[in-house]
Amino acid sequence: MRIREVRHQATTLAEAVSDIRIGVLVKRQNNLWKEVNTAFFKAMALNGIVRRLVLLSPHQFIYINSIFYAPYLYFMFLTIMGAY
Q1: Which one of 10, 14, 66, 78 is at 20 to 30 Å from 37 when CA atoms are compared?
Q2: Where do transmembrane segments lie in this chain (predicted)?
Q3: Nearest to 80 by CA among 4, 11, 21
């Protein structure tokens, strides 16, 4: 996966969670709100991590990315599916 694609996906992920956060706030479902609120901040942290990793060499980037990014996407998918 190219670094540019990963950065774009991280930004898109953060935006998607932000949209869900607003939707959950409107629905006023407290438990789900807390869960998605946590996910929102994790997505923003991930976005910052990805931006820092772009400064590394491609080999280092891919290695670290494969450890942290793929499982996180799966977690976010489950969280987003649970929100609807």
Answers
A1: 66
A2: 61-83
A3: 21
Question: In total, how many domains does the chain have?
Answer: 1
Alpha carbons 66 and 69: distance in angstroms, whole number = 6
pLDDT, one tens digit for every residue, the chain (84 residues): 566 776 777 677 666 666 655 555 555 555 555 666 666 667 766 766 666 655 555 555 555 555 556 666 667 777 777 765
C-alpha to C-alpha distances, 26 to 19, 32, 34, 65, 76, nearest whole angstrom: 11, 12, 13, 34, 20
Range(s) of the domain holding residue 46: 3-82
CA proximity to 3, closest of 44, 45, 73, 64: 64
